[in-house]
User: What shape does this take?
Amino acid sequence: MMNLQDIDWRPKLGQKTDYGIGFVGCGGIVHYAHVPAYQKAGFRIVAAYDLKREAAEAVANLTGTATIYDHLDDLLADPAVEIVDIAVMPWHQLEIVQKVAAAGKHMLCQKPLSDQFDQAVQIVELAQAAGVKQAVNHQMRWDAGIAAAKIMIEKGMIGQPTDAQIQVSSATPWHMWPWLASAPRLEVQYHSIHYIDAIRFLFGTPEWVTSRHAKYARQGEVRAETKSITIMDYASGLQAMVAVNHYNMHGEKSAIFRFLGTEGAIEGTIGLMYNYPTGRPDTLVYNRQDQPPVELTLDEMWIPDAFVGPMAGLMSAIETDSDPPTSTADNLNTLSLIEAAYLSAAENRSVRPAEIGNHHASRA
Ligand SMILES: NC(=O)c1ccc[n+]([C@@H]2O[C@H](COP(=O)([O-])OP(=O)(O)OC[C@H]3O[C@@H](n4cnc5c(N)ncnc54)[C@H](O)[C@@H]3O)[C@@H](O)[C@H]2O)c1
Assistant: This one.
């Protein structure tokens, strides 16, 4: 059997990594994830703009290399900015993408691409019409446990996949995102979307989505669902389940993934969700009936390390004129699953993702 420690799960950089990056939106996630990840990878941060100047100033102080802009148009006119890294609330993303595309710049959008499916489609079309590369920041695909599992599944180490489970029971610090309290959709659109995208990355697009959503008895002003269970059935018989609750206020926190197949099993933990956003490294154990369990040591974190992945993938796509691994066109397939989950919950039935309009061909 191959040595598990030989599995190279770390994000891969292209040849050219010195594209100038300009931030639009310089809030929490840029500070504690984008900037440290890019600094570690040696990426070049050249500009920062935020509606609140002090947020852009803080990023400029953190990097020591970013020019602060007071207007988006000025950042876009700067030839040093080759990639625009957008990190704003999803309902502001379209208006920014319109300007970035008009300026002919490549861009990395934040997830979710939009809170409205038709606006996500417009975002994709704008980039296609402008001929610029556009990726979305679904960095969980580069989270160590998920990235390693992908390689192991592709190598046939679990045989035919039969069951996939991601189960998270945590006490999420919702106060970090005050703008989410009034959002009409919450858990699946903003959080489980990472796990649903990861499942699609690992196993492709399912035939059926069945989702149930609920609230915690004391979630106060938080308006939408904070607990969800989503089941995705595949034609092969593979059944995937994503089950998440964000108000485990008294019990032991847990965040596990389990990928079972006809030949083996991959089981592990998602370190970030034990103590967001500090987190801890993931764990991963590989089991086969005829062999002792083998543990793969994972020494990187979802935040910030995995944030290298989407930007590195976008840079490689620019360099080689190919599709980024998290292209926004492909992301419409993940968003179709999110829409299917909400339709399923609202109508108490299972939904085929194809029922959702503008379903695009899957690359995964
Ligand atoms: N793991 C992840 O992928 C992850 C984690 C957290 C947040 N996010 C996403 O990142 C985005 C930002 O989240 P955050 O936690 O940094 O929020 P935040 O509230 O801390 O920061 C958002 C920033 O955007 C600025 N802003 C808003 N509209 C703007 C506009 N039109 N132009 C310029 N600046 C604007 C605000 O002034 C603020 O500084 C959200 O879409 C969120 O869903 C992703």
